[in-house]
Specification:
The protein folds into two domains: 142 residues, N-terminal domain of MutM-like DNA repair proteins; 139 residues, Helicase, Ruva Protein, domain 3. The protein is built from eight helices and ten strands. Helix 1 packs parallel to helix 8 and helix 7 packs across helix 8. By secondary structure, the protein is an alpha+beta fold.
Length: 298
């Protein structure tokens, strides 16, 4: 599933291309509309066609298309969703389910030079597993407030805020489960949680209330660091993810433990282990992330 770095990369790619453009048409595969939206195709078109996209934001793993009537199209890629910028005459994307047809009123796109003429473009939506969603909401902040906690990479997300998000967990809840809880902090998923826990030298199954203040400080710093690295490397393309131009990222080439089962740890040479924590395949180094018995051992 695309996580914060992947969704932020898509946002940065698409924001300058869609801002100021008007939605001229919305086309959706009839067999997909009931999965993609909670609106009928007619109602979805009524909400979007004719609207101008003011800006493109992100909250956690959600993309927010702010519209000129005060509403927003809130897009969640889920597991295999892709949203890419294409010229109107480009061939269909693999597993294309929908497209948003945009006018040509915005500044020239990346593939248009002066004198080339302005071309109509589409936002193409493809989704192999059809789990992605589009929601038109009047107040995106209120819509997402009950679903999402603070952003881990925000400057205001201090260590005190991070510790508060982690504290109050039961002894049976693992630190990985806490980090995956979008209501506690938004945008982390399986890849970056495993990577942050490795960087902080914490075993993923460690009970959240058994992690010392010192180890939590390492984890706060590591969480921010791995997310920023993921953005810098334009996301991880293990399988389905592509950026807003349809290109792969390179973060998957820089992971330390995720999907490296049996391969030597870059730090100590111990084979990377795989287990299941919080219902998710989980990767860690048994030596660099030893099991903890008492808090003072951190």
């Amino acid at each position: 599933m695309p996580e914060l770095p992947e969704v932020e990369t898509i946002r940065r790619d698409l924001a300058p291309l869609v801002a100021g453009r008007r939605i001229e048409a919305v086309e959706v595969d009839p067999g997909t509309i009931h999965l993609l939206s909670d609106l009928s195709l007619g109602d979805l078109r009524s909400a979007l066609v004719g609207r101008r996209i003011e800006s493109l934001g992100r909250r956690g793993k959600y993309l927010l298309f702010e519209l000129d009537d005060g509403q927003a199209l809130v897009v969640h890629l889920r597991m295999t969703g892709r949203l890419v910028w294409r010229a109107a005459d480009a061939p269909p994307e693999p597993y294309e389910r929908a497209r948003i047809v945009l006018d040509a009123s915005s500044p020239l796109s990346l593939d248009e030079g002066e004198g080339s003429g302005v071309r109509v473009h589409h936002l193409r939506w493809s989704d192999l597993r059809k789990f992605g969603t589009w929601r038109v909401v009047g107040d995106p902040e209120a819509y997402l407030a009950k679903r999402l906690g603070p952003e881990p990479i925000d400057a205001a997300f201090s260590f005190a805020a991070f510790r508060a998000a982690v504290q109050g967990r039961s002894a049976s809840m693992s630190i990985k489960a806490v980090l995956l809880d979008q209501r506690r902090m938004a945008g982390l998923g399986n890849i970056y949680v495993d990577e942050a826990l490795f960087a902080a030298r914490i075993r993923p199954a460690t009970p959240a209330n058994g992690v010392s203040a010192q180890a939590l400080k390492r984890l706060w710093e590591a969480t921010r660091r791995v997310l920023e690295q993921g953005i810098e490397n334009r996301g991880a393309s293990f399988k389905d993810y592509v950026d807003g131009q349809g290109n792969q990222g390179s973060q998957h080439m820089h992971v330390q433990v995720f999907r490296r089962t049996g391969k030597p740890c870059y730090a100590c040479g111990t084979p990377i282990s795989r287990t299941v924590v919080a219902g998710r395949g989980t990767h860690f180094c048994p030596r660099c992330q030893p099991a903890r018995r008492r808090r003072h051992e951190d």
